[in-house]
Amino acid sequence: MVKEVERAGIPVVHICTVVPISLTVGANRIVPAIAIPYPLGNPALDKKDEKTLRRKIVEKSLQALTTEVEGQTVFED
User: Fold this and answer.
1) DSSP letter string over 8-61?
2) In sequence order, what are the beta bridge partners of 69?
3) Which H or E element spans position 74?
4) In the chain, N or C terminus with fewer CB closer than 10 Å?
5) What is the C-alpha separation between 17 and 40, in angstroms, rounded?
6) What whole-number distance in Å separates Cα of residue 6 and Cα of residue 36?
7) Can the keyword Oxidoreductase be found in this entry's annotation (predicted)?
8) How far apart are CA 39 and CA 37, in angstroms?
9) Rounded to two decimals, what is the model's pTM?
């Protein structure tokens, strides 16, 4: 589905916990997440630290969304 949305001219960021799967399905902008049960957070953290973690992922995703890419790109830390 990611590839079809991109083909329509809408950039997509795939936030995922298993990067090789995203590479296999052909996502162009890939942002690694935290863990399968909690991709955008970590319930073991206190509220402040978890908010910081989530914000970092969202900011990285927004950066990926506005970056021109040629093919598949993984946006690591």
Assistant:
1) TT---EEEES-HHHHHHHT-SEEEE-S-SS-TT--TTS-HHHHHHHHHHHHHHH
2) none
3) strand 73-74
4) C
5) 9
6) 25
7) yes
8) 6
9) 0.87
Q: CA 48, CA 64: separation in Å to the nearest integer?
A: 24
Structure token pair of residue 35: 């863990």
Helix (H, G, I), strand (E, B) or coil at 5: helix
Q: State the pairing for strand pair 73-74/29-32.
A: parallel
Domains of the chain, by residue range, sit at 2-74
Which residue carries 């996502």 as its tokens? 27
How many alpha carbons fall within 13 Å on the CB side of residue 77?
Answer: 4
In the chain, the amino acid numbered 1 is M
Give backbone dihedrals phi and psi of 62, rounded to 5 degrees, phi first.
-65, -40
